[in-house]
Structures
1.
Amino acid sequence: MMQEGLDDGPDFLSEEDRGPRAVNVDLQTDATLQVDISDALSERDKVKFTVHTKSTLPNFKQNEFSVVRQHEEFIWLHDSFVENEEYAGYIIPPAPPKPDFDASREKLQKLGEGEGSMTKEEFTKMKQELEAEYLAIFKKTVAMHEVFLCRVAAHPVLRKDLNFHVFLEYNQDLSVRGKNKKEKLEDFFKNVVKSADGVLVAGVKDVDDFFEHEKTFLLEYHNRVKDSSAKSDRMIRSHKSAADDINRIASTLYTLGTQDSTDLCKFFLKVSELFEKTRKIEARVAADEDLKLADLLKYYLRESQAAKDLLYRRGRALVDYENANKALDKARAKNKDVLQAETTQQVCCQKFEKISESAKQELIDFKTRRVAAFRKNLVELAELELKHAKGNLQLLQSCLGVLKGDT
Amino acid sequence: VCACVRESVCERERESVCECVREGVLFLSQSPEAACLSAEDISPSSNGPRDDDPDDLFAEATEEVSLDSPERQPILSDGPSPAITPVTPVMISPRVDDEDEEENRDTFDIQISVSDPEKVGDGMNAYMVYKVTTKTSLSIFSRDEVCVKRRFSDFLGLYSKLASKYMHMGYIVPPAPEKSIVGMTKVKVGKEDLSSVEFVEKRRSALERYLLRTVKHPALLKDPDVLQFLESSELPRAVSTQALSGAGILRMVNKAADAVNKMTIKMNESDAWFEEKQQQFENLDVQLRKLHASVESLVCHRKELSVNTASFAKSAAMLGNSEDHTALSRALSQLAEVEEKIDQLHQDQSYADFYLISELLGDYVRLITAVKGVFDQRMKAWAKWQDAQVMLQRKREAEAKLQYANKPDKLQQATDEIREWEGKVQQGERDFEQISKNIRREVGRFEKDRVKDFRVVIIKYLESLVHTQQQLIKYWEAFLPEAKAIA
């Protein structure tokens, strides 16, 4: 029964949430194509996103329109980019993670079961908190899906992609089914081959200093971001647990205050009130750290993987080019199928050079974006931490003033 | 010469027991055959009429002492170290009534510290020895500064003596800290790790609080066992400490609770104050336990937060190292430094959480068990009084029967018995009234102390929270320009 209240599908996004959220990415959006997620609906298993487009481009029938999309359709779009050879030289914006409300749902269920064992106030309080948590996860998944679309829309080449336009405009179900078992198995093997290849490719020293440096850098950076992301998650979870404890302490102090026969009753009530307020601030600190730090790291974990994928594709193209060169030499030596070998070699050369050229720019842009995103988020993190610490301090000092004055 | 501690003060020649009128407190000898109490020496300010027959008084006491529980025996052994007398005085007249108590508080000048834990011996026979330092200007002490060495079982021994002497009179005796087999085994085995260091510190602090609470009690402060504990360089080893744990003693003394449950006559509470207070303490007990559990959880999570923050700090430093944009790299290193300082802050805060709040709550949970025990003692006193009345009635009926049967010698015996039981009924009533009076006073004192303790500790705790926030502000203010400097 807990579910029904949330699955009614009310509009979870308040007015203030409309408009591009671009949380972790500093993007220049221009008037020719603006994409955002204007609405979202949470149903039992799925989330329905309303994708809203404003464009002056001639490709679209209207200047402003909306469609409803689900997570699988985002994945389909992302995969179509990855599989497109034309885009081999670009960093494909990482796919948004699947919306995961399981943990939150489980907690709400447990709360429902434990209803009998706590007081009405406690139950209401916990329910409110869990609902807030659910809402926060919901908002995050919306933001992550939106960022993906915005990245595509901001990319000079990808924004012109036909599949992207279909995604934005076609107002019927795209009928993209999730991958079936066979396809998932194929994917799995592809990834295995890729990692084996990755080792091979990574071993070959690149002639170009820029790419050699990028390779070394990205391999190490990706691993460290992964580690930092995991550790920041753990840190923030502990913070939330501590805030929950303070919540319980505040409740018990309140009960003590109402029961006590001595002068302590007023004392307890005042301290209980204080802890209620500081607890809310602590919870906000954890939430802000989550948004500004944890999410940032998670996002760059995915982006650095996408950059690594680009390097891999270039590496593959280089290997193909070198093989084609060797084949050409052999053909010339044997004087057999020389023309064919020449053509193949030409194609490989062009492919490699095209990828290298765009990859260089992509990687430079990646760095610029990364630095800008980190700057924005670290500044905001520090500002929020300061704001909350000052808020806490003020509450504590005013309460202490009252308590000391009472004696 | 009397063998009591105050040899220099008391010149009375007594076989075993003396009473120093000046202090108005009964000193007991060390000898196992404690027998007579000289009735004439009993302090004039005692409440209620005294029985003229000292032997009877003690007979009373011995009866009092032999409770249904056999566990009583080991503690009161007359064996090798007669550390306590097997007889408890029926009345230690509470010379201090409310006005005196205020006076005493103003002149309360005693400082006790427990320090320098030292391991003695090796392996499973090893134990910790603590230095107990007493600084005071009070006259009952022989010097104004004394240092002695005591081990944990000595503290338990002290508590068991005090509990058996005073609890049945309605005095709230502060319980000693709990035994911990796991904690001590680690220390014995010689693990020099953080957890055993923390354990020893936790115990040292608890022992100090225990002694301070004990001497804060005006009657306990003057008790010879307490004085001996604080001053005597050699203390006879408390035997059978296996049987003694703080909780064990309370359980034993609270056997009264079982007796109460088995009472066939339900106590008719004529005094609403007692019923109300009992209910209040019951509620307080529930809430304090709940609060204690939540605070322990907070301590745990804050420690976890500290560890995870340190771990994140290291990770951020590594990330900063591999970042190839110079300004961002520097900012990330700075972030790592900030987080490292914050992790230390969390750790310090968790210590404050623990030592200030958690331990206080733990102490009070144990204290309230002692308070509840004292209420049960009163019920037991009431039951005894009622039983005596029933007995008296029976004896009267028996005498009436014998009157008709014309057996003169038996009649005489019956009449004697009636007189005996009349005395017991009177004594029972007096005891009950006395314990009721004592409890009222004790509860008043306890509540005053509770209010003071909680106020002081909570204010200190809030101040620690203030400090943490001020430090946080300092750290983040230092970091902000670094973040902004990323270009």
2.
Amino acid sequence: MARNLGFLVLILSLSICQAAIFRPITDTHRSAALELFTPIDGSFGSLDDTYEALRTFEILGIEGKTDITPMTCPLVVENLGSSSSSLKDLFYALRVNGILKCEISAEVFEGISSKLQAIVKDASLLLDFYYSIGSLVLIKDQGFKSNALLGDADGIFHSIKTLSQSDGRWRHSSNGPGSTIYGAGIALEALAGVVSLASTEVDQSMIGTVKNDIIKLFDGLESYDDGTFYFDDKLVDAREHQSSLSTTSSVIRGVTAFAAVTSGSLNLPGDKILCLAKFFLAIGIPGSAKDLFNQIDSLACLENNRQVINVEMSFFWYRVSIPLILSVPATVLSLTKNDQLKVKVNTVLGSNAPPLTVKLVKAFSSDSKANSIVENQELKFDPESSVHFLDGLPNSVDIGKYIFFFKVVLHDPEQKKVYATGGQTQVPIVVTGFIKIDNAEITVVDSDLGSIETNQKLDLHGENDVSLSANHLQKLRLSFQMTTPLGHAFKPHQAFLKLRHESRVEHIFVVGNSGKQFVIVLVKFLQPIYLCGIFSPIYACAYDFLGLVEKFYYLSGRYDIQLTVGDATMENSFLQALGHVELDLPEPPEKATRPPLQPVDPYLIYGPKQEITHIFRKPEKRPAQELSLAFLGLMLLPFFGFIIGLTRLGNLKNFPTSTVPAIFAVLFHVGIASVLLLYLLFWLKLDLFTTLKALGFLGAFLLFVGHRALSHLASTSAKLKSA
Amino acid sequence: MQDSNKPYETKVIVGGGEKVQQWSVYLIAVVVYMAIVGSFPFNSFLSGVLSCVGTAVLAICLRIQVNKENKEFKDLPPERAFADFVLCNLVLHLVIMNFLG
């Protein structure tokens, strides 16, 4: 046991990357590239977007150049010809020209290169160095070598080197805030450009220092749980922060570019390169165009980093190890269909690998890592489809989840320095198959006596329709056995029994197991006497007896029985109606819980609603119209009596006789009468505001008139008194 | 009460305690009517009652003010009292008409 454990630890430590599945670039990436990089009106927008699109298409082998040449070339020519273009625009214009090969005259290149030479001498920012040196390298590649060479390569190399830090990162300027890994990638590309443009050879000691910087930079690699490695900058400035993908791509570009121009290897461990490649592959299909470009460009750098040393001997010397990816297209194998285990080994861009063999070293079941079921089996190779396959699974492979350990062995031992294969690769494999279910039976057992009242056999592979009846003093027992194709006991993920009442109240029970046998016993006692365990030793039952009757809400009636058994590795999972059982439960006591309300069919709420009959208050009894009119007449009588009385009394002696006061007195009476008439109108039809307005006018008039009349009267009576 | 003591306006209105009795009769009549036909528009009934009561009160006030034997209101000219009476009646009846509904 200890030996096995030690062996296991050794194996796990040998495999650098954990059990995860990485697939190389496929046609899915090509269609994603066509979707993400869509030209609008014949162009991709700015020059850097255009360059990213064209480079991605070039690597993936997609034809798209001819459509955009008419719109993009004029833009390129304009940028290269103008004296006010920024360094970044010049750089990307030259890059686009490198792919599209627009017609640019030699004078333009001369003008640009002399301008760039001047900038390089005085530059102090890292990005200035990067763009200017990069542009000079592109001019050299496009055929104008003489203009592009650098005179003082050592000096420029040194200026760039001074921006580096001791931990391998680079600052962006001499008095800038922080150093970044992204800057290191850019700096390495710039240094590689300097070395390739140098007219005389650069000092080897400085190159050696840079190689040490690269080693230190790789010490700062971070890793994810699935074993992939990446570079990431800590957040210094939110505006300029680069994601881990762009930081890692920048480093890969810089390192591969530098390795291409220097002699001797960089001594970077192949496993780290492989895990960096797996980081890019683990992204899958990125969502944005820039991320896709970074992914594809970095993988292309890793695959194509080779420098021709000796063309005649066709000998290629690889600077940074080329990663080889082992992928399993189908990780679910079916025993019933006799599926073959197939494995593919490709480079990251999906090209063929050199001649090699794949060995299946070990295979452990996920549950018990005790013994491997396979020892060092070689896979056969099919050259037509470039697939390594295992001719038939070993006999000891049963249904379940396994982890297979593969190892890639190259035929040519020299190529071990060239390619990174990464020790042992773990791949999780799921094997499915047909589960046999037999000895299935459903029984109603009398608890007190232990005698079986009804027993019916079930065929869980076919149709069933049992009809049972039970009361609360009996038990319902269901049991069955499940075996794998190799005859082992099988424990599924799901084994449920559902009882559904006619009123759609449902109860679900989990079927317990011990060993092979699956049993469920439903006990419906009222007295809390524990009688479980007497009949058979192979079931688990832990039901609250009183609770079970309560659980059923004391609902008697017909219950439909449904059995559900399922598992990920079981090809014949089923959900089956077994029949029905008539339950006779006692009457619910006063305070029993009611069954929960079942959800109403939602479409019912969209139908017409019930008619609402409003109940109105009975109207008050009103008097008969004749009676009301009679009362009105009765009330008005005294008024007429009053008028008659006025004339009889002859009360008008004090009425003023002279003209003016007489008019005022008359107007006074008219005013009072009009106010009373206004009130009558108010009662009949006017509203308060109109009335108040009219009353205001009338009141003012009445006041004036009344004052005059009464003051005249008062003066006459005062005269009489004094007289 | 001497009729000639009073100015003409007040004679008719005030004319003895009979007038007050008359308003009381009115009041009783309104209440009896309500008892017969029910108090459905209760506000109407109230305004009828209030009208009787208010007018009776105002009439009594006028009588008191106009009466020469009343020492308190010696300096108050009867015309002024009458003008007050008219104004208060008008306001009272406005309120009643509003409340009548």
